[in-house]
Amino acid sequence: MRTVNIHEAKTHLSRLIERAASGEPFVIAKAGRPLVKVVPIDAPEPSAQRRLGFLAGEADVPEDFDHMGAEAIADLFQDRH
Questions:
Q1: CB under 8 Å to 62, separation ≥6 — which residues?
Q2: Could you list the mean pLDDT of each consecutive 10-residue stretch along the chain, which spans 81 residues?
Q3: List of domains in the chain
Q4: Cα-flanking dihedrals φ and ψ of residue 26, to 5°?
Q5: Would you say 62 and 68 are in contact if contact means Cβ atoms under 8 Å apart?
Q6: pTM score, two decimals?
């Protein structure tokens, strides 16, 4: 992602906005420190970008998953007096 300083952003604002609107976001920095990110208004929010199912088929869950270790756990809570 391109980073521009404030002076460059002011000088080339129209060009930068056109590029951002076409899908090339950029960062405006002050003294080399990023301040803001310019993205198209219809760009998805970062929190809305979820990767559901990215591990689908990569792990097996045993049929007895909900009951695994139930006896051992019950033994831990038995009254031992």
A1: 68
A2: 95 95 94 94 70 82 90 85 57
A3: 2-40+52-77 (3.40.1620.10)
A4: -145, 165
A5: yes
A6: 0.53
